[in-house]
Amino acid sequence: MALHMIKLVVGCDTIDDLVAWHKEGHPWVMHTRMTPKRIDEILDGGSLYRVFKGQVLCRQAILAIDTVGEGQNARCEVTVDPAIVRVAPQPRRAFQGWRYLKPEDAPPDLTEGEAAEMPPELARQLRELGAW
Questions:
Q1: What's the pLDDT tens digit per position in 1-15?
Q2: Under a CB-based contact definition with an 8 Å cutoff, are residues 55 and 92 in contact?
């Protein structure tokens, strides 16, 4: 069973902001200091779930995980699929770096119709009330 990663998005307030930032020529690579120890589980169908302002809103399939540099200069690059899958908003407290996310804890994907119909703020409020 695939293992996922979750990470806060810094510098983008919405999914549209993230897409616009990458249209400026930035590659779909997430940089982090720590390389996951469970790479094989993540590469077996895992996704990178993204947290925007305290809400998990989307995911992207993880294509590759590479360590670049050596010693204290070593860093991890996580290459993700440019296709963004919107998920049911799920509240998440702030944390540093990234975390593993078990499949049973991951929010479900939204259909295209659900994603198009629901404004993010309304979806967040419904989720907080337990109505969605």
A1: 789 999 999 888 888
A2: yes
